[in-house]
Amino acid sequence: MTQDTGRKLVLPGYRRDDVDAHPPLLSPGYGSTVTRAPRQPLVFLPQRLTEVTGPLLGEGRLGELDHDLTRQHDGEALGQRIIVHGRVLDGDGRAVPHTLVEIWQANAAGRYRHAADTWPAPLDPHFTGVGRALTDERGRYHFVTVQPGAYPWRNHDNAWRPAHIHFSLFGRAFTQRLVTQMYFPGDPLFFQDPVFNAVRDPRARQRMVARYDHAATRPEWALAYEFDIVLRGREATVFEGEDDDE
Amino acid sequence: MSERLGVTPAQTVGPYLHIGLHWPDGPYVVPEGTAGAFWLRGSIVDGTGAAVVDAMVESWQADPDGRFDHPDDPRGARPPAVDGFRGFGRAETDTQGRYALHTVRPGPLPAPEGGTEAPHLTLSVFARGLLHRLVTRVYFPGEPGNAADPVLRTVEPGRRDTLLARSTADGFQFDIRLQGEHETVFFAV
Q1: Beta carbons of A241 and A10 less than 8 angstroms apart
Q2: A204 touches chain B (CB under 8 A)
Q3: How many CB atoms lie within 10 A of CB B33?
Q4: Residue closest to A165 by CA, chosen among A213, A200, A210
Q5: Which tens digit of pLDDT belongs to each residue from B59-83?
Q6: What backbone torsions phi and psi does residue B177 show, to the nearest 5 degrees?
Q7: A142: annotated active-site residue
Q8: Rounded CA separation A83/A85 (Å)
Q9: Residue B151: left (phi > 0), alpha (psi -120 to 50), or beta?
Q10: pTM of the predicted model as reported, rounded to 2 decimal places
Q11: Which of B133, B42, B119, B104 lies closest to A170, judged by CA?
Q12: Which residues contact B137 (CB under 8 A, 6 or more apart)?
């Protein structure tokens, strides 16, 4: 066992996010936050070895059809077929390569394949709504799925969730871990959705909306959306000694 | 010059996170049968004391030698000291708000400012009603290094025990209170 005590550790740092980048944990418009958001302020934690490292989850977690949610069963999923693609970048615009992207979503009728989803929309026997992909060396990912439906929930009077796809990302460090939702451009339900609107900065909110990408559509087969995801960037630290491994 | 981009905002995992984030082997930071392995168990409750049944925790930790198999560890990436050690665990809560992770005790870590960090795991908590993950740390009871740990020392003394696991028959217990009396300390990383 070696102990490098004595020598000073020089760690990469990750920039703290702007206050308005993320929704406040206590956002009373979204009712469930009222009993779940901590009441004490978060304690500031300088980034240490545990925070600047993180799980590097690779190929081992992927099945052959994990990126194509329409072909994971014997028959084809019902609904409008879509391609969702984009890049995972850090806040400096650098690609985040070989990182696991996990998605889940409702089916075309707005119902999740989950025991607790009691919305009486039809379940599609050919759609689970779960996908996984790894970004390539340029940070690109690609899914084939169906356009998810909107669905009602009980948060407020006549509440409907805009169509969305849940995204989960790891990046390269614990500080970069992110779960978000991708929304579709021009959705008429945005105005009344407290989850989407909990992000106060309209520019930050817009970063959750995909772009319709006609160039990536496939004729007579699928529409396409582009959704780039930005994880935290590194602090501009001058590294002594070794170069950044890029 | 690189371009500065705004980060994508966090959103809640919603109530159906388990369909997308379920891994059958998720709770196993180390394989079953690993020497010295134990179960870290806990429950998650909200401000009313109700069990949070739609939650998930993820753990990240060093190996028993205090090393990470990661290129950004300035001491060098090193294969884990324990076969099958992943450093990472993912466990969803059950119908009573309980989670369980199978792991080994991490080693102490050198701190960037000098000194040593006591053995710890870091946890992320995701749930319906949480618009962003919460981050906390799990420390071990009776660990002599806890008193000098630079992170524990930044926490007000009356709240430090929320970061300490309790010993149990098959390992440790670490309960998470999202809100209210004995609220767990959560960190801004």
Answers
A1: yes
A2: yes
A3: 7
A4: A210
A5: 999 999 999 999 999 999 999 999 9
A6: -110, 115
A7: no
A8: 6
A9: alpha
A10: 0.95
A11: B133
A12: B120, B121, B122, B123, B151, B163, B187
Active-site position among A30, A151, A183, A225: A151
The whole-number mean pLDDT for each consecutive block of 10 residues of chain A, a chain of 246 residues, reads 60 93 98 98 96 90 94 97 98 96 98 95 98 97 98 98 98 98 98 98 98 98 98 76 46
Identity of the amino acid at A66: D
Contact: B47, A3; criterion CB under 8 Å: no
- DSSP β-bridge partners for residue B38: B103
From the list B8, B65, B114, the residue facing A1 with the nearest CB is B65
Q: Which two tokens stand for residue B181?
A: 């009396």
In angstroms, what separates the C-alpha of B40 from chain A's closest C-alpha? 18
Note the residue count of chain A: 246
Tally C-beta pairs within 8 A across A and B: 252
Tokens 């929304």 belong to A183
A164 has catalytic annotation: yes
ipTM, 2 dp: 0.97
Contacts of B185 (CB under 8 A, 6+ apart): A40, A43, B136, B155, B159, B160, B162, B163
| Residue A30 annotated among the catalytic residues of the structure | no
pLDDT digits (tens, 9 = 90+) for B49-64: 999 999 999 999 999 9
